[in-house]
Every structure is written in C-alpha cells, then in structure tokens.
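Glutathione ABC transporter permease GsiC: structure tokens wanted.
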Amino acid sequence: MHVYILRRLILIIPVLLGLTVIVFLIMSLIPGDPALAILGSYATPENVAKLRADLGLDKSMVEQYWIWLTNMVQGDFGRSYSLNRPVLDEILERFGATLILAGTSLVLCTIFGLLTGVVSAVRQYGWADKTLTFAVLIGISIPSFWLGLLLMMFFAVELRWLPVSGMYAIYGGGDLPDLIRHLILPSVTLAVVATGIIARLTRSNMLEVLRQDFIRTARAKGLDENRVIYRHAFKAALVNVIPVIGVQAGFVLGGAVYIETVFQWPGIGRMLVNAISTRDILLVQGGVVLVAGSYVLFNLFADVIQHLLDPRVKA
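Answer:
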C-alpha cells in the first residue's frame, strides 16, 4: 500500500506541473492589458509602462511563468490588486466556504446515488426501478443553474421556507442552524447531477455483480438476502463506483463556480467570477490552480480507497 501511494504521489507531480502551464497560458491569451484594467482613468502611457514593469508583464511569457511558478512553490501566490491583499489569504478564506458547500453536496450525492442505484438494481424492471430511473434521467438532464433558480423561486420566494442566498443571515444568525438553512438549496442543486451519474453506475455494476457465481453460491447456502446484497454484492460493486465518486467530487467542486454565483455563496467560485471581471490575473490563476489541484487529490484519494477495497487494482 505504501508503495502504491508513493507511486501515485510521484505521478501527480507532472500532472500538477502541466496544470500550471495550462492555467498560465489560458490567462495569458485572454485579450486586454491588465495594466490598463488596473489603472482605469489613470492609464497614461507612462503609468502603463511603469505598472507593466512592476508586474513583470514586460518580460517574455517563459520568464513570467517561471517567476510565477517559483514564487507559488514557495507559498507566494502574489498580491491581488483588486482586493489589495495576498492572493493566498483570499483563496484560503474563500476555500473554506466552498469546501462546506462541495463537501455537503458530495455526501448527499454519494448517499442518495448509491442508495438509488442499489434499490433500482434489486428491484429491476419493477415500479421502483422505473420511477427512480426516470427521476435520475430528469436530474441529469436539467442544467444545475436553472434547477437552482427553480428551487429558489419555489422554496425561497413562494413558500418562504428557506433563505434566498448567502451563507448566513445578514442580520442575526451566524450559528450552525442558520448555516444549514442557507446550505440546503445550493447543496441540493449541486448534488442532483452527480447523484444521477453515481446512481446509474451503481445500478449497472450491481446488476452485473448479482449475476456472478459467488452471489448464487451465497444464496444457495441460505444466507439472508439483505446480507447477500449489502455485504457481498454491494461491496463488490463499490470497487468500480469509487473512482466515479472521486471524479464527481471534482465535478462538484468545479460546479460550485456557477452555483455560488446563483446563490451568492461567498466561496472560490464567486471569487473567480469577480476576479475575471476585474482581470485580476494572479487571483484567477491562484484560484484555478487550487481548485484543479484539489480535483487531482480527490482522484488520488478515490484510487487509494479503491485499492484498499480491491488490492488487485493497479496504478
């Protein structure tokens, strides 16, 4: 196991390096001059030239990338000009809110996705299977941002059961119950698509496992049906579902960008939207690298769990 984890950690290094190259190139290709965006009405040719020199924008792209990469490796992500504070401080402050939203959504989609897939497989072609399959297809097909607006309009505007947006109430609140009330709508919205994907894969893997000889043997021995399904069949099917859950963890984290915008959640996604609109390049680069790096780590964690469940799985 230690060798397996060490091998995967080594393989992550070129992935993260390639990730930084892609992020830097994409930001470099965005039209417009950051110096002009920063200076605004004070953008005289002299001021623009001086600011470009201060920001290192007068250097070649290779030099800019190397300076940014070496500083980032040392923990210096630069300074956000729009917020006038270190990029890393802003990212870490926002990342906590994003982890709360994405973590809750991941727990919801994992629990309901696995449960739905198992029930559909066990009740194959029954009314439960048809109903759940139809619901899953609807959930996968609906755009998340549109679903969020529908839920907001129904539960927040019409019924007034839940708050419209934000992480805490503007006046009062600030405690755990207040956080949970604000978390329900965005977390459910973010979890719907991932729930459908996990449910469909769980169903197909459960159906395949239930046809295996060891399941027939377990039933022939007179084992309780629930024990056969949940202790034997589900465990075997879970080996192939775990990697997809890891992928969905990255999807949920990335999907938080537009869900946070819809619900005005103060996380990384909302920060990135604001940073892009102000052309705060260092803030955008730092945020994207952190989100993408977290996606890579989620997949590593999923692979390790899969290897624990089935040591035959190779890197």
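The longest strand covers residues 79-80. The radius of gyration is 24 Å.

Cheers.
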